[in-house]
Amino acid sequence: MSDDTIRLVTIGRMLRRRWRLLAVLTVVGALVGYGTSLVFPPRYTTSASVLLPGQWEERELLTQAEIAASSAVVDRAAAALGPEVSGTELRDRVSAKAADGNIIKISGTADTPEGAQRLSDQVAQQFVAFASRLAGDTTDPEAAAGPETLRKLVVQTGRRITDMAEAADPGQTVESVQGRTELEKLRTALQEAMKKLDQADPAANKANMVVMGPAARPTGESAPTRTQLIAAGALLFFLSAVIGHLAAARVSRRLRTEPEIAAALGSMLLGTVDVPGERPAHRPEGRGPRAWIRWLLGLDTRWDVPAPQPSGGEAGRQIRYRRVFARLRDQLPAPGRLLVVVPDGDEIARRAAGQLVAEAESDPTPSSSRRGNPVLRVVGVSVSRPLVPDRGTESGALVVLSAGSWTAGELAGIAGACADAGHEVVGIVVAGPVRARPTRSPGQPPDEAAPALAARGHATGGSV
């Protein structure tokens, strides 16, 4: 697992090198969202408001909201709407909540704006009728007429008391004053009792609910709309691809440092060399539809490899290759033939191996104790099933590879294949890409002179 911190530059590099794959996955996500919108048809939602006059506590309003969305009200609304809908179906499409100002908002959802409006209005009407029935508006007529009769009787009694007070002795005697005072107290007590009766009577105050007009016809779909589903699908696939790339890079077990690579192969590191980066090919390597798809999506190049550093110049690259080759000569007891083992698919290592072969053929100054330079032969080895040619005239194997491309298990497999073929790994060379300097015009002199190499491509050296 890599311990490198994921930085913005890493995300930017991934977006630059995987933009085609991310674009394709984003389009796929948008298509999935569009398909989901076809499976789930659009819905429209509107609300009808019911006013509850009088004094209501919060818990009472919540109770009324529960009643408005109960099966008793919804089933009556379904029966009024017709046989094409059922109460069970409507229960999931009707909701109610208590709002400020003693208002119950009843919301209905349907496949069309007209259906949502009709559903909300019908449920509101059925709620008012049901609440009135509960409060006693439609109960026994005699019981409903009782409070009104009592009010009339109180009014008549008050008038009778007034008449009695006026007919009493108008004198200022103690008895007359006490009589008028008692009559006035009696009338006041009757009026207060009637007020309390009105406040306690639910049929007088709380049953007179009012539907505050018809529900407004919705002009747009309720969430999630088709546009929202398409955008959500595209965003989900894009973020999943980005997170997947970052997670894969985080758990990557590819070896990035020279000591780790040397330990996995069980040999000594001779040095590191740099290879100038080349423009990506305009056509994929290999044949078949899979190669074309990988090329189109940008999967044929690594995205988690840092951008190449600027090259130090051709002369510096040649010096570093000579130093690596000199160390290789010092490792050999005598000049002979060596296999240069390169993992398949490692283009940077393959070009570095070609440069080493060219250096071996062009070096005119072998060590005085040597009769000649070793002869190098490059062979490609599959990391999935490594197989190295049996030992013949070769006296060992030189492994050339790029950093950050292979795991410890894959490198151990290459070392084991070399051992099975009778080759001793005499050294390791790590290659890395660099950015070549711009090509000079013919009239400009070079900054530094260096002998030309008969190589397959320019190769540059890193730190040795």
TrEMBL record:
Regarding the membrane, this protein is recorded as:
Multi-pass membrane protein
Per the record, its GO cellular-component terms are:
plasma membrane
Q: Where mainly located?
A: membrane
User: Where does the chain cross the membrane?
Assistant: 21-40
Signal sequence bounds: none
What superkingdom heads the lineage?
A: Bacteria
| Keywords attached to this entry | Cell membrane, Membrane, Transmembrane, Transmembrane helix
Residue ranges constituting the Polysaccharide chain length determinant N-terminal domain according to the UniProt record: 4-69
Stretch list, region Disordered: 436-464
The record's subcellular location field reads: Cell membrane
Q: What does the similarity note say? A: Belongs to the CpsC/CapA family.
Query: What is this protein called in UniProt?
Result: Polysaccharide chain length determinant N-terminal domain-containing protein
Q: What is the lineage of its organism?
A: Bacteria, Bacillati, Actinomycetota, Actinomycetes, Kitasatosporales
